[in-house]
Every structure is written in structure tokens, then in C-alpha cells.
Predict the structure.
Amino acid sequence: MNPEEWSDALRQLTGITGVLGALIISADDGLVVAETAIDELATADVAALAAALVSRAARCTAAMRSAVPSSIHLLAEQGAVLAVAGPPPLWLVAVARHDAELGRLRLLLRDFAGALR
Amino acid sequence: MRVLEPWVAAPLTELLGESGARLALIMTSAGQVVAQHGFTRSLDVMSAAALGAGILATTGELANVVGAPSGFGAVVHQGGQQGVWLAGFDTPRGRWIGLVVFGPESSIGLVRLFFARFAEQVARAAPPLVPVREVLAEGFERELDQSLRALFGAG
């Protein structure tokens, strides 16, 4: 996948009803690599916090001596953050409202994260 | 943590706690230290303050040369085990500089996020300016001692 194809993939993700934004982030430095989102979504903040979430989940699973996490789904009352690992250090992250089509979003995230290589 | 201005303590505590940073140094743009966390030797603090202020002044000039007169937002040095975030921010007391050292348990993005919040909180927390007192020669050494004690403790 090249950066143009990344943009296409992100646009498809944000085309799902209820998805506010989709980002490719670098989990090592917590920065946005590519993004498509509504203006109100602070994507730089999302990238930083999602990267911190990924890092803590990795430390947690390491402490449990279990596998490295490949996806993280954080479901809250008003929304959800879904993150799926791509080739290190990239992660594909989506922010959605609680009433978004999360099942479809999850499937697309997995497909696109695998194709980021 | 050592602070010369007590109202900087709460925002700095939050910055350190939320970002997971290891060291922090807050100074005026002239290099005068306002607060520090994690440094154990006064010499290190003074060196870091002088170098940090110098780096920001240099990058400010570099920004002019490359046609970015509003300057760069921050300077980041990323190493294998440690990174340094260096950025200026406006306060009611003038322009200050923050130098934050972070390890692999944190990230540039996280430091950027919480540094921005820190700068906002400091700007809000700053009490009104009081007129600058004239520094008299006989009081200078005593005031310098008090400042050093506040930053590094007695001893």
C-alpha cells in the first residue's frame, strides 16, 4: 500500500456511519502518519493517547506472559476507539460514536491493517 | 520537584504524571530557571537551561532564514533510550521555555499533548505581575542564595 492507497482506505473507514475519524499512527512516537477525520476530532491527541494505550496494553500482556496485542477495542458510553496493529510501528486507529457500525468497522480495520505492509 | 514560582507546581506535576516524563526544566527565555524536576546537580540544571535557551534561540533564527517568521513550535531530539522535547510558550510573565526529557515509556505525541495543556494551565494560573524591585548589591547575594535553595534544597 502506498500513501495514496492509505488515504483511500482511511476514507472508506470514515465512510462508515458513525465513524468520526481514522488514522494511521506511529505507536513508537505517538504521532499521526495519515488521517481522515472530521474537523472537531483532535487527531494529534488521539494518536498520542492511542499510542499510550497500545504501549500500556503491550506492557500488560508482557507481564501476563501472553501474546503481544494485535488489536485494542475500547468501548465507552458515548463512543469507541478501535486500534489494529499494522507493520511495526504502525497502528490503524478509528474513533467512532457508540451507535456506529462497529462490526463492519472492525472487519475493515483488520483488512486494511494487514494491507499496510 | 523544585519550583521558584509555587503556582507552576500543580501544572508541572500533571505534566510529569500524565506524560511519564523523566526530567523537566522550566525556564525564562533568558535561561533563568523557574522549576525543575529530576535533576540532582545544580550544574546540570544550569547547563541544561543555558543550552536549551540557546537551542531555541538558534532555531528561532533558523526559522527566519527558511521563511517561517512565526518560528517552530518545538524542537525534538529523539534518541534510542531518551528523547528531549524543547518548546517555548507564552505566559503573563513573558515567554518561557520547557525542556522535557522522556524515555521509551512515553512518546513525543504524549509529551506534546500534555505540554500544551501545561502551557495553558500555567498561563491561567499566573498571578498578576508585581512591579520589579530594584536589585541592590547588598541584597543580591541573599536573593541568589534563596533562589538556589528553592531549586536545589538546603545544603
Observations:
- Chain A is about 40% helix and 30% strand.
- Chain A touches chain B at residues 25, 28-31, 44-45, 47-49, 51-52, 55 (CB under 8 Å).
